[in-house]
Design a protein that fits this description.
There is one protein chain. This protein has one domain: Rossmann fold (3-Layer(aba) Sandwich). It is an alpha/beta fold. It starts with a helix and ends with a strand. It has a seven-stranded mixed beta sheet with strand order 3-2-1-4-5-7-6, sandwiched between helices. α6 packs across α8.
Length: about 220
């Protein structure tokens, strides 16, 4: 999908974005847990593709900046969280003029036309000891997510470009970023009593389940 159409799509869904997040609250809580484990409170954090700002707020940053190319998303985020900073900008070409302890890219890369350009922009926001954390969908789950959208169980997001860990690591490497950790998380994104907790808890203990997980978690550092 052309960048202009992606931007138009998210402008249109911005008003319902938080409602969709509430509908998928169990998954969003699991995603938040992933970032809580890796991003201590009180740090400086840049979120690329911040939406309405909920995840950034949950991380309790000392300095929090959210970037999104949807003007409406940024307006909603700024109204909800006046203690944080939100900027309308293209993830492929931006420079906030500062560096951060952590740069996070949650469930965004599948919507970016030029992922290499996004990584280069993110690299400019990193110090040598910064960490760039990317979470994205395992391409194995593509049929399931397409079906969920058609059934109205998931927010419509238009076309996706789902890439594997290997592909993303190669693109990031060309942008001056080195993959230092990779893991899989979330086997059951819906709250199924007993089963969801059992499956999602098993992931951390059984590394061989990584290829089956919904969420790929990739951690990069400047090379």
């Amino acid at each position: 999908m052309p960048k202009e159409e992606i931007q138009k799509h998210f402008e249109e869904v911005a008003g319902d974005y938080d409602r969709w997040k509430e509908k998928s609250a169990y998954y969003f809580d699991l995603l938040s847990e992933i970032y809580w484990e890796m991003v201590p409170p009180g740090r400086s954090v840049l979120e690329i593709g911040c939406g309405t700002g909920t995840l950034l707020s949950r991380l309790s940053p000392r300095r929090g900046v959210g970037v999104d190319f949807s003007t409406r998303m940024v307006e909603i985020a700024a109204a909800k969280y006046p203690d944080l900073s939100f900027v309308v900008a293209d993830a492929e070409d931006f420079d906030p003029g500062e560096t951060f302890d952590y740069v996070i890219v949650p469930d965004v890369v599948e919507h970016i036309s030029d992922i290499g350009a996004m990584f280069r922009s993110a690299r400019r926001c990193c110090r040598p000891d910064s960490r760039l954390i990317v979470t994205c969908v395992n391409p194995l789950w593509a049929p399931v997510l397409h079906l969920a959208e058609r059934l109205g169980m998931k927010m419509p997001e238009g076309e996706h470009r789902w890439l594997s860990e290997r592909e993303l690591a190669a693109i990031a490497g060309e942008a001056g970023l080195r993959l230092v950790a990779a893991r899989g998380r979330i086997l059951c994104p819906k709250k199924v009593p007993l089963l969801a907790g059992l499956l999602n808890g098993a992931v951390a203990k059984l590394p061989f389940l990584k290829p089956l997980c919904l969420t790929q978690v990739l951690v990069f550092t400047p090379s």
